[in-house]
Amino acid sequence: MKELILPAPAKLNRLLHITGRRSDGYHELQTLFQFLDHGDTLRFRRRDDGIVNLESTLDTVAQNDNLVVRAARLLQVDIDCRLGVDIHLDKRLPLGGGLGGGSSDAATTLLALNHLWNLGLSPDRLAALGLRLGADVPVFVYGHAAWAEGIGERLTPVELDTPWFVVLHPGIEVATPQVFGAPQLTRNTPPISMARALQEGPEAWRNDCEATVRRLYPRVDEAFEWLSAFAPPLLTGTGACLFCSLQHESDAQRLLEQVRDDWHAFKARGCNVSPLHQALSLM
User: Fold this and answer.
1) Which residue in the list 40, 136, 208, 251 is annotated as catalytic?
2) Which residues, at least 6 apart from 33, have a Cβ–Cβ distance to it below 8 Å?
3) Contact assessment for residue 148 and residue 29, using Cβ atoms and an 8 Å cutoff
4) Does the structural domain 1-283 have CATH classification 3.30.230.10?
5) Distance (Å, rounded) from C-alpha 155 to C-alpha 136?
6) Does 11 participate in catalysis according to the annotation?
7) 2 catalytic, yes or no?
8) Contacts of 66 (CB under 8 A, 6+ apart)
9) Residue boundaries of the structural domains of the chain
10) What value, to the nearest 5°, has the Cα angle with vertex 154 and ends 8 and 72?
11) DSSP conformation letters of 54-80
12) Do the beta carbons of residue 202 and residue 279 sit within 8 Å?
């Protein structure tokens, strides 16, 4: 196998509770991850000289800082691999949007190179490597909707409803450290069980970051108020993206047609199995 083209799907946090703050500064979370059938696309071509080269439609992140390059080089070092790769990243997901774009790109890279370099590494091994790149990477490696705890790395697969979503990005980037460092952030939500969260259902789900993000970023607050006229919105991650669920694709399309020109929005279907893993299963 010399070349692969694979998706790097977006994720939504359909629920996000912050239950405490650890001594190392990280926060204890409870969240529900679900994938979308929308995201970035990566093309991989194997090299035999050990060089990792990235071409990207995103030019605001230095190559050495990009999680795609970091994932490839981490894998090389971990297994002492002498192979290399040319990677082309077609970037569609916004930076600082809460959709997990960088983490998803990193996970797709790990899984793609596992195939392209014929490594035969287990998902657990790849997820452990991914966790060194970011707390959200393992859920993309495993590729199933999940209830997550800890910093988001302790995962239990779940089956969620799969409505159509409209995702709205108000044209700004939210700085996650600023949100988690805000004094007013809710950090003491009582933990609940996964069973209770699933029993309560989407009508009861919320994001503990929402009030803080809306206060710090007026454009997010403005978009939230606008979207509320159509369906109950939620923040994903620490934002800036908001989403709402709709029963039919036609409903999502009608909402899209009303979005302001200075905002970006798209419609997508929720997925319990990642589009990346659906693609890999056909190989």
Assistant:
1) 136
2) 11, 12, 13, 14, 136, 139, 145, 146, 148, 152, 155
3) yes
4) yes
5) 10
6) yes
7) no
8) 54, 56, 58, 89, 102, 105
9) 1-283
10) 40
11) EEES--SS-GGGSHHHHHHHHHHHHHT
12) no
In the numeric block, which tokens belong to residue 278?
């659906």
pLDDT in tens, 155-207: 999 999 999 999 999 999 999 999 999 999 999 999 999 999 999 999 999 99
Q: Are 227 and 258 in contact (CB under 8 A)?
A: no
Residue 236 tokens, joined: 């994903």
pTM of the model: 0.96
Structure tokens at 263: 């905002």
Go through the chain and tell me how many residues it has: 283
**How do residues 39-57 score in pLDDT, each as one tens digit?**
999 999 999 999 999 999 8
Q: Catalytic pick from 11, 40, 251, 267?
A: 11
- Asked whether the beta carbons of 87 and 47 are under 8 A apart, the reply is no
